[in-house]
Fold this protein.
Amino acid sequence: MDRAQVDFYLLNDDDARAVYRTACRLAEKAYEQGHRVVVRTPDTAATAQLDEMLWTFSDRSFVPHCVWPGEPALVDATPVLVSSAAGPDTHRGVLINLTSSVPEDGAVFGRVLEIVAADDESKRLARTRWRAYRESGFEPRSHNL
């Protein structure tokens, strides 16, 4: 199996909502490209917040999504899942990781996307994740937004 592509998106905004808005845009783009997506949040409160943002972040589009775990038929039919837990095997295209650690299951995805706010703590945690990816054989790339 090929290694997942790991991309870090570096924001110039340290607002936590900027991270979630970027996650929404990345989920939308991945969905439009036909990928099945898991957005991994740090906890259930963040899952609820991101779920709400996916309904409202754009007036021009809709990102079909639901919270995992959920009703199996709905989950199977929905391209974007939001969860603080590992998603199902049916969604292995793109992982948008909003947690502060490297996901243990990151290698099973085609792509792993990391979003980094501009504050010092977010940058410090991102550097730690970058090193961990490199030590695991990944070749992360960075993108300034």
In short: Strands lie at 5-10, 37-40, 65-67, 80-83, 94-97, 111-116, 141-144. The first helix runs from residue 16 to 32.
